[in-house]
């Protein structure tokens, strides 16, 4: 078996920056030609640094050492810059997350793809142009002749990612490194890109896939290596690692995947106090969440359109109606551009509908004046995707929450501190975060502060717009559990908006599937998932990353 | 069609700006104390007779109501007639035109040099390691803070009096323009360099630079093909404004180096209360400024294809 060398051999790889503890601490693995190995880990686990070290691009200040680091059986340890350049693109290709920023936004994609050919071949301009068209065709981009002249900003997320892959495989490198290649994409597009990567693997290329999401990689990876704190804690065949994880870290990651887990199942290791029961609520559903038939929020035939740059109007939300019962969760799912966020802004009365109305507790909401709404505003809270962007960066956590409590700046009463502490306690944060600024917090902590801010006004309704989509799967699990806890404790009614059907499935009692501004299907979560009525729901459902072992 | 519409909108905007400039200058000049007829007759020290003042007032229309004077002047400006200098006894149009070339040459050379210096400084300070970054950014801040009059005097002290290699006043040759250009270019280079370095750093940290390196692109290739274009964009948009500041800097520089040009003409005209010349120079500078803004817009469109999309 020794005649075909591994596409990549790594032994005892260590990477450190400055004098700090090494970020990668003794990593070893092989990838055979035609094999797909996935390295899975949380942010900061060292997986991206490992991938970049294989390209010699760990950074100018990185100290990279290894017993062996071989591409196609040839050692690349201690290569000089020139020798590295000759190998990059030819012997190993790289695909990064979000091609909007991974392709130069000022250059047509055709040029970017042709660059690899210009650097490593003697092909003339016409031959390069022809090859670029072949490549675009090979990655499944329709109308290559039309697309080559476009800038990355003119393409959709999936098209861009295809172009980026085309640039990486232009010279048929025996090894392709894909670092979170689908993280910024909608589920159906994600499924297509994964299928493309699988096709590339079948062609004999070795693929090193880097991801934080086990469910995503389980689709195409032959083997999985779980990375934690700079080490590979568990490596094995995908089915075996996911089916019977041996290490605690792997078990946590498997448990964190929300798809197919019934409502109320905990996704993260228990870390909280007992859940107190709510006095006066006796009706308890099988999942343990009390709710009744009182409608707290109602959308009636909402419509809203926007003006396109060329002056024509586009309907962003078209005839959207639903009712939210007290204590229950309505999940709204759809891909980018389906009108989810516009719906959220209509529900929060940040936008006025052109047609229809929103009613809160049976009272006019969208139709009321802002002055009347202001009295009710506290009862409708909001949690946003980009927690960091929703804070004033100069405000400390204490200032953010004090403001949300309705206490004027600089007028903190003694009891304010107590209220701040109890809020933080509720979202699982220590009081030590109070003096810190949002930038100093981790992504999960920020979203917890975002939830605390939403809870400060004692809302009865919470509108969550993609609250977990910028988080790692394990942090996402904690935040989802947190939302579940606060909903139970406060008898909150939730509108949960997400592009991730797996997440929506886990949190929702009812589900509305949106497409092109319309609700194509709405019904009880169990029914929609078991027997989707609309073809589009079925299609979305098929694309959800789940542990396919 | 859309391009034509945009050009038309730009032209309308330019006309509006010129009208505002004319109006504000007209009003500002009325605020200067003293009888303008006095200025025509050689200033307050000339002790002109009341009869002479009356004749001049009638000739130049100073006896008309202000609003009439305003519209008379606007009408003249609209036909391109800048009037006649009080002090120099010649038409303002030819006078300004004869001085414009020298100032434009000075400003264009200074802008070009500032760009080259800024690019070199920004590239060196982002690629040359920690010490280069510190030295580079300090140089930029110091250069950007230098006042023209101080820099001009220092350059004269060093290069003319000390080393004796360059003339302290403009003699008309190539050597004479070196110090004035340096005086204008150095502070601007510091300013542009700061902006370029910042955007260059952002560009070099971007994923598309990592993608390019992973394709086997060299450091020089990354800079040349990708990063510098991104770094140039904000500096290009600021160049229109920078050109305007160069022309106002020319007032100081031309005076110190005794160089003929618009700046010195303007200064003389202000001292002599030569209102038509002041207005003429200001209008000319406004036109140059508008043209320069159009040019930088065109340059931005050339470098950034995203602007050409809509």
CA radius of gyration of chain B is 24 Å
Low-confidence stretches of chain B: none
**Percentage beta strand of chain A:** 15-25%
CATH H level, superfamily name of the largest domain in chain B: MetI-like
- Total helical segments of chain A: 20
Largest sheet of chain A: 6 strands, mixed
CATH-defined superfamily of the domain at 34-56 and 81-256 in chain A: P-loop containing nucleotide triphosphate hydrolases
User: What is the level-2 CATH architecture name of the largest domain in chain B?
Assistant: Orthogonal Bundle
The best one-word shape of chain A is: globular
Topology readout:
The complex is a heterodimer of chains A (549) and B (310).
Chain A: E1 8-17, E2 24-31, E3 36-40, H1 47-54, E4 62-65, E5 68-71, E6 74-75, H2 81-87, E7 92-95, H3 99-102, H4 109-120, H5 125-138, H6 144-147, H7 157-168, E8 175-179, H8 187-202, E9 206-211, H9 214-218, E10 223-228, E11 231-237, H10 238-243, H11 248-256, E12 295-307, E13 313-325, E14 329-333, H12 340-347, E15 355-360, E16 363-364, H13 370-377, E17 380-383, H14 397-404, H15 414-426, H16 443-456, E18 461-465, H17 473-490, E19 493-498, H18 501-507, E20 510-515, E21 518-524, H19 525-530, H20 535-543
Parallel strand pairs in A: 3-9, 3-10, 7-8, 8-9, 14-19, 14-20, 17-18, 18-19
Antiparallel strand pairs in A: 1-2, 1-4, 1-5, 5-6, 10-11, 12-13, 12-15, 15-16, 20-21
Helix pairs in contact in A: 4-5, 4-7, 5-7, 7-8, 8-20, 11-17, 14-16, 16-17
Chain B: H1 2-30, H2 36-40, H3 50-60, H4 66-78, H5 92-127, H6 129-145, H7 148-162, H8 174-205, H9 207-214, H10 219-256, H11 262-271, H12 275-303
Helix pairs in contact in B: 1-12, 5-6, 5-8, 5-10, 5-12, 6-8, 7-8, 7-10, 8-10, 9-10, 10-11, 10-12, 11-12
């Amino acid at each position: 078996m020794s005649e075909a060398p591994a596409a990549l051999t790594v032994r005892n790889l260590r990477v450190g920056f400055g004098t700090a503890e090494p970020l990668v601490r003794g990593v070893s693995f092989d990838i055979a030609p035609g094999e797909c190995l996935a390295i899975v880990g949380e942010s900061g686990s060292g997986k991206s640094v490992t991938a970049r070290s294989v390209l010699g691009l760990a950074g100018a200040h990185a100290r990279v050492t290894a017993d062996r680091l071989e591409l196609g059986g040839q050692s690349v340890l201690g290569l000089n810059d020139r020798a590295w350049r000759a190998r990059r693109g030819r012997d190993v290709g790289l695909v990064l997350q979000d091609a909007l920023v991974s392709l130069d936004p000022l250059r047509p994609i055709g040029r970017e793809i042709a660059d690899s050919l210009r650097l490593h071949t003697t092909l003339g301009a016409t031959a390069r142009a022809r090859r670029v068209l072949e490549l675009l065709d090979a990655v499944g981009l329709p109308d290559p002749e039309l697309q080559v002249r476009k800038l990355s900003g003119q393409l959709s997320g999936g098209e861009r990612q295809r172009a980026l892959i085309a640039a990486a495989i232009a010279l048929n490198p025996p090894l392709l490194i894909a670092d979170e290649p689908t993280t910024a994409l909608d589920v159906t597009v994600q499924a297509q890109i994964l299928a493309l990567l699988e096709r590339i693997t079948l062609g004999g290329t070795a693929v090193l896939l880097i991801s934080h999401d086990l469910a995503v990689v389980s689709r195409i990876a032959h083997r999985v290596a779980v990375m934690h704190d700079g080490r590979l804690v568990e490596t094995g065949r995908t089915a075996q690692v996911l089916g019977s994880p041996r290490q605690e870290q792997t078990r946590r990651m498997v448990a964190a995947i929300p798809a197919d887990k019934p409502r109320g199942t905990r996704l993260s290791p228990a870390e909280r106090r007992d859940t107190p029961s709510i006095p006066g609520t006796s009706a308890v559903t099988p999942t343990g969440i009390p709710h009744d038939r009182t409608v707290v929020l109602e959308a009636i035939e909402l419509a809203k359109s926007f003006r396109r740059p060329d002056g024509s109007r586009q309907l962003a939300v078209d005839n959207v109606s639903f009712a939210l019962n007290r204590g229950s969760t309505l999940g709204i799912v759809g891909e980018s551009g389906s009108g989810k966020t516009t719906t959220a802004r209509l529900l929060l009365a940040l936008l006025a509908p052109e047609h229809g109305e929103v009613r809160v507790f049976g009272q006019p909401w969208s139709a009321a004046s802002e002055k009347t709404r202001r009295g009710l505003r506290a009862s409708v809270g909001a949690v946003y995707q980009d927690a960091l962007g929703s804070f004033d960066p100069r405000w400390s956590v204490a200032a953010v929450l004090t403001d949300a409590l309705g206490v004027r700046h600089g007028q903190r009463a003694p009891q304010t501190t107590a209220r701040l502490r109890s809020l933080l306690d509720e979202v699982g944060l220590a009081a030590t975060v109070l003096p810190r600024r949002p930038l100093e917090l981790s992504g999960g902590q920020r979203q917890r502060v975002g939830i605390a801010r939403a809870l400060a006004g004692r809302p009865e309704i919470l509108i969550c717009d993609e609250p977990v989509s910028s988080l790692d799967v394990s942090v996402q699990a904690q935040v989802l559990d947190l939302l579940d806890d606060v909903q139970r404790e406060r008898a909150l009614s939730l509108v949960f908006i997400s592009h991730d059907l797996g997440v929506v499935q886990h949190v929702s009692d009812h589900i509305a599937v949106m497409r092109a501004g319309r609700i194509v299907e709405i019904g009880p979560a169990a029914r929609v998932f078991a027997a989707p009525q609309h073809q589009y729901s079925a299609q979305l459902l098929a694309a959800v990353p789940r542990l396919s072992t | 069609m859309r391009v034509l519409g945009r050009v038309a909108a730009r032209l309308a905007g330019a006309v509006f700006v010129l009208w505002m400039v004319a109006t504000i200058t007209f009003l500002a000049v009325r605020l200067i104390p003293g009888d303008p007829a006095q200025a025509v007759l050689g200033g307050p020290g000339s002790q002109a007779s009341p009869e002479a003042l009356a004749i001049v007032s009638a000739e130049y229309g100073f006896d008309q109501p202000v609003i009439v004077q305003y519209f008379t002047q606007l009408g003249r400006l609209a036909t391109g007639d800048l009037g006649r200098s009080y002090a120099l006894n010649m038409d303002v149009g030819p006078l300004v035109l004869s001085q414009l070339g020298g100032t434009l040459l000075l400003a264009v050379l200074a802008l070009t040099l500032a760009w080259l210096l800024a690019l070199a400084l920004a590239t060196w300070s982002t690629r040359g390691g920690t010490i280069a970054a510190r030295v580079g950014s300090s140089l930029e801040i110091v250069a950007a803070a230098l006042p023209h009059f101080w820099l001009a005097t220092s350059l004269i002290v060093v290069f003319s009096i000390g080393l004796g290699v360059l003339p302290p006043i403009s003699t008309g040759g190539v050597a004479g323009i070196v110090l004035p250009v340096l005086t204008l270019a150095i502070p601007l280079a510091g300013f542009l360099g700061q902006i370029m370095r910042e955007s260059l750093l952002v560009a070099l940290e971007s994923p598309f630079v990592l993608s390019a390196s992973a394709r086997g692109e060299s450091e020089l290739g990354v800079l040349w093909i990708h990063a510098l274009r991104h770094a140039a964009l904000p500096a290009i948009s600021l160049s229109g404004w920078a050109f305007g500041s160069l022309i106002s800097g020319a007032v100081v520089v031309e005076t110190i180096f005794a160089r003929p040009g618009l700046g010195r003409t303007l200064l003389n005209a202000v001292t002599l209360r030569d209102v038509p010349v002041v207005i003429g120079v200001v209008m000319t500078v406004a036109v140059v400024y508008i043209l320069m803004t159009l040019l930088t817009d065109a340059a931005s469109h050339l470098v950034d294809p995203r602007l050409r999309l809509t």
